[in-house]
Amino acid sequence: MSPTLLEGNAWRYGRNVDTDVIIPARYLALNDPKELGRHCLEDLDPEFVSKVKKGDILVAEENFGSGSSREHAPLAIKGCGVAAVIASSFARIFYRNAFNVGLPILESPPAVEGTKTGDRLRVDLEKGLIENLTTGNVYQATPVPEFMREIISRGGLVEYVKMRLNSNKQGKE
Amino acid sequence: MGHTITEKILAFHAGSEEVSPGDLVNVRVDLALANDITAPLAIEAFRSMGAERVFDREKVALIPDHFTPARDIPAAQNCALLRDFAREQELAHYFEVGRMGIEHVLLPEMGLVLPGEVVVGADSHTCTYGALGAFSTGVGSTDLAMAMALGEIWLRVPESMKLYYHGELQPWVGGKDLILHTIGSIGVDGARYRAMEFHGPAIAALSMDSRFAMANMAIEAGAKNGIFHIDDKTLEWLKGRSEREYRVFESDPDAVYVEEIDFDVSGLEPQVAFPHLPSNVKPVSQAGEVEIDQVVIGSCTNGRLEDMETAAAILSGRKVHPGVRAIIIPGTQWVVREMARRGWMEVFISAGAAVSTPTCGPCLGGHMGILAAGERSVSTTNRNFVGRMGHPESEVYLAGPAVAAASAVTGKLTDPREVMGE
Questions:
Q1: Closest CA to B119 of B192, B194, B33
Q2: CB–CB of B172/B270 below 8 Å?
Q3: What is the least distance, in Å, from the CA of A16 to any CA of chain B?
Q4: What residue of A is the nearest CA neighbor of B362?
Q5: Domains annotated on chain B, with CATH
Q6: Which of B26, B79, B388 to mutate: most A Cβ within 10 Å?
Q7: Which residue among B14, B61, B244, B292 is the one 20 to 30 A from B398 at the CA level?
Q8: Which of A40, A78, A93 to mutate to test the interface with B (most CBs of B within 10 A)?
Q9: B273-325 confidence digits (pLDDT tens)
Q10: Residue A163 to residue B149: CA distance in whole angstroms
């Protein structure tokens, strides 16, 4: 089980952070999260990768992860050590991909508005609570759809499909 | 209460009487596809799921089109992985270089997508097939692995928005201009999570190639899918492509839309999206003096026959500006052959343009036309994000093939009517 309580420093960005700046296509022949992580966000903020610390939290405005379907994007974010992404809203393919690769994401426009780069954040994934320890403000993230919660509780999509395939096999025997 | 075409297709594939926006449904998939960038991760996830065989060897397509013909050793390794998997699974639809085309141009051309079907692809531009009245959407590699293993995908039924276009289109204005104009109006998240349903007399008058270009860029407004109703043009286009049966779905007159927008496109000029968002759109007459270094005509948006025809009409008897590299990338081998047969290959070569084998190549900064720092490209592709076509300090201006070809001649962003003396 991954931890449900996270604490880290915020990295704050604007609207429409697209998957091309999260991980440029020149690195898409790579599949290893660690290698991808070395180039995460380098076209948006060249200093990010050298300064980000394990457990830090990305915070961005509307439409985070817009653009391509590359699963390399949430993998690169995980690979550089980021523990979670908080955004005002997410592009839909990125939203699904983040769940599928186990990158925690939370939607909360007020939390984004109330956060600056360098703020210390604490996140309770189970309750969807975001606490800005620097300002003392607490925010409730938009609840995750129930069906997705069920998939998460079964260990993610890979485990869910594994279970389905097993029950198909048993059905045939 | 009535339902939209999107809701009806999803209900049918979920085995339900009806579904409504917001419902989470498990739907049967008619085709699952991936390319040389997304398939390696999908195959890895497929194995982790303990899957041994794909759900149906006729309903999984692998298309190595992004970094191919392999641009470097890692790309070649990924292609080898696809090839081995296709052999192991005896996939009916694996397309090797030489038979390969850009996936979203190729699959409809091969008759692999039909009206009323559900298609999921590990590529965001999978929404292209909505031009045929199919529900199609882009997903990530793990979701695609589920589709390959089970032949199913879970989806949230999207709210639909109705986009209605009326008025007669000006010369040199096509589907690309309509969709750029639309994205410019509603923004890059103006259709986020929604179905974009295209209607109206201006749509009825559009060619199929132009409709593909429009559906293709629904994702650039954040949409889950873009969709058209089928008409005589669709039926004519489908003729002889497949013997499979298909179902035709239509939105009910009392279907519910979350938003309806009316566009009068009678005076619409050719459109250009300036860096660095597809919504940063201006009519070409307001472009100002923008000198350029490169022109790309191709991609899953504009790599079809009509696009090549438009470019050839403008480049015929003209020369590419000495300061410009014009790169023409037909979408499939069929388009290549037709270009040769119709004499357009001769036109492009005489004009001083490079003609490539089909590949996604420069669109996503893969290869075949990467930009250096400070360079500008007019491109018929679909995204102009920072660093999309190369160096983070380069710039991409999105346009249709007419603006791109005219700009290749003058060396700056240009209205095709100017070059053609109209």
A1: B33
A2: yes
A3: 8
A4: A25
A5: 5-262 (3.30.499.10), 273-419 (3.30.499.10)
A6: B388
A7: B61
A8: A93
A9: 999 999 999 999 999 999 999 999 999 999 999 999 999 999 999 999 999 99
A10: 12
